[in-house]
Design brief:
The chain is mostly helical.
Length: 87
């Protein structure tokens, strides 16, 4: 799980840096503020598309989205079990 978090952090930060760099080279007359704002919107759009895609995959792979569990998930690793242990 931490590896996935690390890869996601690198991917989205890298996408932001790459987009900002490309915009500054493609449109030198634009201000830095404009380049950063456009890059932020590109990264947000990529996150929204990936989140929507993963939601569609989850919905299509489950018969009942509320009660079905993931393939590798057990009661001990579920979020519900973790939250009930804290109470």
């Amino acid at each position: 799980m931490l590896l996935l978090l690390a890869w996601g952090s690198l991917f989205f930060a890298g996408l932001f840096v790459l987009c900002t760099w490309w915009l500054r080279r493609a449109w030198p007359e634009r201000s830095d503020h404009d380049c950063v704002m456009i890059s932020t919107r590109v990264v947000s759009s990529a996150q929204a598309i990936l989140a929507t895609g993963s939601g569609i995959v989850i919905i299509c792979s489950c018969r009942n989205v509320v009660t079905d569990r993931g393939l590798g998930e057990t009661w001990g690793t579920s979020l519900l079990a973790a939250s009930s242990r804290q109470n």
